[in-house]
Write a structure and sequence with these properties.
Blueprint (H helix, E strand, L loop, with lengths): L2 H25 L7 H17 L23 E3 L8 E3 L2 H14 L7 E7 L2 E8 L2 E7 L5 E3 L2 H4 L22 E9 L2 H13 L8 H9 L4 H5 L4 E9 L8 H10 L9 E3 L2 H14 L7 E8 L2 H7 L1 E2 L2 E2 L2 E5 L4 E13 L4 E13 L2 E7 L3 H7 L2 E2 L2 E5 L7 E5 L9 E2 L2 H8 L5 E3 L6 E3 L4 H13 L11 H9 L14 H5 L6 H13 L5 H7 L7 H11 L2 H5 L3 H5 L6 H11 L2 H12 L18 E5 L7 H10 L3 E3 L8 E4 L5 H9 L3 E4 H9 L1
Parallel strand pairs: 2-13, 23-24, 23-25, 25-26
Antiparallel strand pairs: 1-6, 3-9, 3-10, 4-5, 4-7, 7-8, 10-13, 11-12, 14-15, 14-18, 15-16, 15-22, 17-20, 18-19, 21-22
Helix pairs in contact: 1-2, 13-14, 17-18
The protein binds 2-(butylsulfanyl)adenosine.
2-(butylsulfanyl)adenosine (IVH) binds next to strand 3, strand 8 and strand 13.
Length: 674
Amino acid sequence: MSPKKQATARIKKLRSLIADYRYNYHVLDKSIMSEAAADSLKHELTQLEQEFPELISPDSPSQRVAGEPLPGFKKIEHTTRMLSLNDVFNIEELVAWEKRINKLIPVSNREFYVDLKLDGLACALVYQDGKFERAITRGDGVVGEDVTQNVLTIESVPTHLRDTQRFKTFLTGRTEIRGEILMYKADFGALNASRKAKGLPLFANPRNLSAGTIRQLDPSLVASRPLRFRAWDILRDNPADVPTFELANEIIKTLGVAVNSQTKILGSVDKIINFADKWEQERQKLPFNIDGLVIKINDRNVYQKLGVVGKAPRGAVAYKFAAEEATTIVKDIVISIGRTGVATPVAVFDPVVVAGSTVRHASLHNADEIKRKDVRVGDTVVIYKAGDIIPQVLRVLPELRPSHAKTFLMEPELRRQYPELEFVRIENEVAYRAKGLTGKLILTRSLEHFASKSALDIDGMGEKNVATLVDANLVKDLADIFTLHKKQIMSLERFAELSASNLVSAISKVKTPTLSRFIFGLGIRHVGAQTAIDLANHYRRFDNLGSSSYSDLKQIDGVGEIVAESILAWFSDDDNQKMLAKFRKLGVWPEEVKHVGGKLSGKKFVITGTLESMGRDVAAEKIRTLGGTFQSSLGRDTDFLVTGQNVGKGKINKANENSTKVIDEKQFLQIINT
Ligand code: IVH
């Protein structure tokens, strides 16, 4: 399927699910998924639409404000449209927004008005000559619902604006104050606690409860729920009455309506990010929920001039905090064999940022869990991660399941991914365990491999010495050998002072191995010496390999499905991650692959077919001595494909796709000889 066709299909599904979510959320006050998950889907939709602008349609959820007026309330048209805000999720998107604005209206000393983004529901209060007249929900932004009777029960909404000398203009004519209706976390908790005591079903969260309450047709019920109002804007027929947002905040407060006291005027994106980081850390301390910041151009004249695109003003954005949930697509389910021989299925997905960190995989724990959650390869899933908690697959969104989604069956997968092992399901346990493999046996084998000639090549770490060290419990993982002291080793039967001291010194000599030897030494299944070299040349730094994604790995010629799966499984194992952290702490870390100097510096070559003038090894040597990189297989980053005799079309096509230059032997000789 072409990328555009794929995007079309995905966009259609996303739109329909987002529309369902919105209808449930805004009209029925029901939540079919968390707001964070819905935001994540909306973000994906907007990105796809940016990539393929021709697929944008006016009815896309990205183009309109959610919510339609409820049939039970009188519909009222807003005098000024109630807009929504575009979201930004990181510093780059914020910088891009600032750039767009500066291009339209350049200013050297820009003032940004920054406010907390309240997680409530928008409402407009209309005051006529200082007297409360009506309250209107946002509705679709053009027409809202008249919820005057309900809002009258909210104590923090004054029936009369306070008399003030300084802002007395606001007490004549029409003054509209906009803000959020919300509930404090403590009030919500108390309400739920009393419901629990009565055996009543619990409310999901303060926001949903506020929204549900304000749409009740019975004001006495509304009065029994502790709702509050906090304002974020004030509108007058004469805009000159309110020249800045900073002043708007002061006016509203003076008139007697609650506002946020945490607002700030900031002069740069950097300062905004600092402020955002602080509030992201401290948001728990606030009495109400916030989900980000709102950033506006403080000068309302400029703000007005910047105008509106679609549903949102150009002059403001919502900076959303890292959501604790996000959606992504499961690319594969790999099985990792842990230190004790237990097989753990791990979902590998398109990298996704959750709560500020990039998540690439999550343990699915065991076969029963996969069955219970019905996770299939190809599914869109909701990932949850809060604070230091290990990321989890919360649930599948079956609405977005493609027809090619693949059910995961543990036993056949074990046979496919580990044909050489036999697994048993222990009675009364959900786990599968590799038969005949004990923790000690696994460790002994991996240590022998790690120390072997083609890996770290440690003198004095042959089979027998390794077994002795493991048996004596002196090492629990590969990294532990770097903690060994002469004295500890000497106390073992096989060693004397000299041999112990030789071993310690041999080990300390290999603290900075080459990248390829280190990768090979880790003993990742299916990663032989050659693949290790390819990976080292491709990624150059170990961390790059560690953060590679499935599709990334598959780009490397010679890295097929099984190898990619195996690498991902290795890195997704907690024990392996702990071991890597230990290596780092002990100062044991592979070199970066650098090709300094030489006229081919930074250039990557792949040779295919037979060369007439020299063997492949000699050619590789020449490339390396000139500072270039010899790759054994085509990657996205390959610069030249040298074609010898008998070359298949596939390679050339792939090179063309990646804009790798295809040259013949004669051209190659010219490059290396001149
Ligand atoms: S200013 C053009 N300030 O978030 C709209 N909105 O996602 C200007 N919100 O529609 C809105 N806290 O309902 C503003 N401090 C705040 C806010 C805030 C919450 C809501 C508001 C808005 C929505 C946008």
